[in-house]
Please model this.
Amino acid sequence: MVMAVQFLSSVLLFALLSRVHCDGAIKGLDQSEDGSSGTISFKTPELDDEDAYSFHMPSSLKCDGCRVLAHMMYTKFDKIHKNRPSMKTLPEHEILDIFESVCEDKFENCGVKDIKGVKRLSGPGLETADVPGVMQGGGKWPSRLQQMCQNYVGELGEEEIYQAYKEHGKQLEKYLCYGDGVQGDCSSLNKTKKKKAKKSKEEL
Model:
């Protein structure tokens, strides 16, 4: 009898806590500053015409896209090298196969997500992947990432990106995304943010 009462009490307490959590989530409680809150936002990302219809990755999301691709390239190279520690350099055909597998990936785990009112890509290697929320994937997002990947490979070359991996390891992202020209998707985004912040201060 005592055990039955304790079990019933536990069930009622769990139901009460679940109700409180769900009510808070539905009201759209904000995540913590580092985006690590377990509260789920049910807000669907609001897409403009560029987000919805353009064949190209929107400028504001190119940095996230580059970081996803850099992470995937690094992960695949690192896995092979760990399985063959004696091999210092991969043969050319394996390097080509890796880039082909990345650039032709279906990117099923990638999509756009609303995080505190800001549209961000969510995908492998991004902190946004761990933030609870509604991700809008499919559509044109996979083809945009494929196009970005092909652009990096076409402009820089498979061998050069592979050499960058060998030299920088996990810092391949910095090489691919924080440089100049085709390698500056994150650099240009940071410059734009700084300009907007400066303009806002001047208008105050």
